[in-house]
Amino acid sequence: MTILTSCLEGKKPNFCVLGAGHGGMAMAAHLSLLGFTVNLFNRTEARIVPVQQREGISLSGEIEGFGHVRIATSDIAEALEDSDILMVVVPAVGHRYMAEVCAPHLRDGHVVVLNPGRTLGALEFKQVLKEKGCRADVVIGETQSLLYASRAIGPGEVRIFRIKNSVPLATIPAHRIPEVLKVVRQAIPQFVPGTNIFKTSFDNIGAVFHPAITILNASWIEERVDFEFYMQGISASVCLIMEKMDEERVAVAEALGIHALTAREWLYRAYHATGKNLYDAMMDNPGYRDIMAPKTLKVRYITEDVPMSLVPMASLGRMLGVPTPTMDTFIHLASVIHNCDYMTEGRTVERLGIDGMSIKDLRLLALGEETSP
After folding, report:
1. What is the pTM assigned to this prediction?
2. How far apart are CA 154 and CA 315, in angstroms?
3. Does residue 213 share a domain with residue 197?
4. What is the residue range of 254's domain?
């Protein structure tokens, strides 16, 4: 009997959260408070020492309490032992690493969920497992966004500002979405069915919000000014720019035959925030209040969201003949700021192995069918 089968037949799943950042700490503590056994893995030991010493994580904000963690470790074999569901909660630039270290230890029926996949994270994870010779029957999924708006506020302490009302989850292959949801929703009912990994990938609203707000507030950030990122960091003009980038994201998705939510539609579904335009809708979202801006431009809002979100969208756009001038501008500006070439280093269609694929083959890929460019 495989892990997934036993969970479907009534066994309570054990979770391993991979990543001890803001989101990973929040998820580990939340799952524990919901009554599930939780292991926590982090690449470096230093970050989890407070969790080891306290044997858990303190939560405040929307959820209050102390979440016991069974094991907090930097040993991946120890972390995955007796775990059924692997919740990967790291910046998308870490997905390849997580796939590499997990590959030798995965077993039939393991479920891996990237929280979130950003854009085409599940596809990258699947390909790395193949490269590493992993032959286990593993289901790989990705969520459209992170469930939590949260921040670590001290050693072993996390504040959850808001939990989203619903977060779509899709898997490779797509036909296994229902069975994975049946297991994962025992703990987190906010997960809802996603259509496929292209749908979750293109409903990645962080690609629209994070790089634009960060780059357009570069002077404030470099001067280390305290301001609320999603509130004081935006204006009517900033939102006009984000709306244009949003239109490009939706257009590339449409070229794939995917209906992507607009940013305004997403804000309503995730937070019940409404408004006649994007600026009004963001102002109507209390979940964004009190989230302070970063103090450096070396932040995942650029280092993750540009190469792992904007680049694959723009790259697919080029392949499908959809112009993305606003995305291209922010990819270029981010590359200038960080003295690199994000368009080359990111998840391009060439690096993902899908260059030259037809729309038919891309859609079959989401279903789990083996295709060739």
Report:
1. 0.84
2. 39
3. no
4. 206-365
